[in-house]
Amino acid sequence: MCLQQRQQNAIKIKRASPLSSACFHEQHRRRLLLRREQFRELALLDSRSSSSLSSSSSSFNLGPISPLPSYHEYAFELPESTSYGERLLSRDHLSTLKADFFKDHGEASRYRIQEVIGEGSSGVVCSAIDTHTGERVAIKKIANVFDNLSDAMQTLREIKLLRLLRHPDIVYTRDIVLPPSWTGFRHSYVVFELMKSDLHEVIRANEDLTTEHHQFFMYQLLRGLKYIHTANVFHRDLKPKNILVNANCKLKICDFGLARVAFNDVPTTIFWTDYFGNRWYRAPELCGSFFAKYTPAIDIWSIGCIFAEMLTKRPLFGGKKGVHQLDLITDLLGSPKPEALARIRNEKARRYLSSMQKKKPIPFVKKFPNADPLALRLLERLLAFDPKERPTAEEALADPYFHRWAKVEREPSANPISRVEFEFERRRSTIEDIRELIYREILASFQLKYSEGEYSYIVFFSNL
């Protein structure tokens, strides 16, 4: 049966009437087999049109790279010597986390926990085997989601954005299991595709990343950011730890908990008054609340800081507080131009910068002596002090630095997100309101994935 015929059969399945449980699982199995066969054929086509990349601990030979027929993707590999850092969890602590991860809930039998791969203030992340499909996944447990309104809204916001922002360079959820009811459930289990590591660990642990690696990483980041920004979304927390990486150099942007959607008719003070991301990757206009209205350029600055960290293997601006961060930025870039100062609405910030001792910029070729000249040219654009001088993500993709990768016209854009999706941010809500909205969002996500023959999972359990 040809690929086209299988796709037609899949469309027929999608249009079928409501199914019994047994029939549902059989058709889900067929959809999985269909998608696997499609991927096999695409991989075969790609292998005919591009040479494989060879790598060793001593060298990295880059062969011709061609896009997949279905999407502008490439085959690429990290060196075999790549390291992803050490896990610092003790055996006893690991055993406790694994034992308590799902508690006694029967639905947990679908996933066989492998190891704890992360632990932070927002939850615990484990790798696991999906026993229904045999695939490896990552499961993030967010405990006690509804202990306070802020955390509940952040969870709702991220779930919505992961449903609405569907792009190969953005992490996606794998499946959805509804809670027994919308009342009473306390914890969330978000099942993602499993990625090998994050960019922070890759940068920290490897000495043999090449210019080609840097180019490929940056191209994917900007490609994903272009999609995010065309949806009128600002990520606001881009940093190496929020960029997942696989051994084939595939990057995926994650952690949309601090992201916001911009609506032209909404007062900016409504959504710009809360916490921004890590200070080290924060644009200068955020360090002193310079402007009344922010732009996507805040994310472009963060990408520039990440790029500089790739080149030097250490954070570029490691400020201890906001004022110190500004000092470090102006030490490198020099004092702001008069026209940039004139646009600063915050009088205190404008006065501080105006009174600052005049500084001359440090040439980037001196700061980054071993970097590709084209890389430095792009970096200077990304790290312009004035947000008006920074390129958009799409403009950055067209930079000569990406001459061997760029097919900007083929990179997808998103439709702007409707303000209806985020109406909850503009009204007073209780925790129970957000609980119901999360439940409705899970229903919406489930219907979307089922209608498309996919399974993306956010697993919510009650009273664990």
UniProtKB/TrEMBL annotation:
Keywords: ATP-binding, Kinase, Magnesium, Nucleotide-binding, Phosphoprotein, Serine/threonine-protein kinase, Transferase
SUPFAM superfamilies reported for this sequence: Protein kinase-like (PK-like)
Reaction(s) catalysed (UniProt annotation): L-threonyl-[protein] + ATP = O-phospho-L-threonyl-[protein] + ADP + H(+); L-seryl-[protein] + ATP = O-phospho-L-seryl-[protein] + ADP + H(+)
InterPro entries: Kinase-like_dom_sf, MAP_kinase_CS, MAPK, Prot_kinase_dom, Protein_kinase_ATP_BS, Ser/Thr_kinase_AS
Cofactor: Mg(2+)
Domain Protein kinase intervals: 111-402
Domain of life: Eukaryota
PROSITE patterns in alphabetical order: MAPK, PROTEIN_KINASE_ATP, PROTEIN_KINASE_DOM, PROTEIN_KINASE_ST
Root EC class: transferase
Presence of keyword Transmembrane helix: no
Binding positions (ATP): 141
Regulation: Activated by threonine and tyrosine phosphorylation.
Listed GO MF terms: ATP binding; MAP kinase activity
EC number: 2.7.11.24
Family: Belongs to the protein kinase superfamily. Ser/Thr protein kinase family. MAP kinase subfamily.
Protein name: Mitogen-activated protein kinase
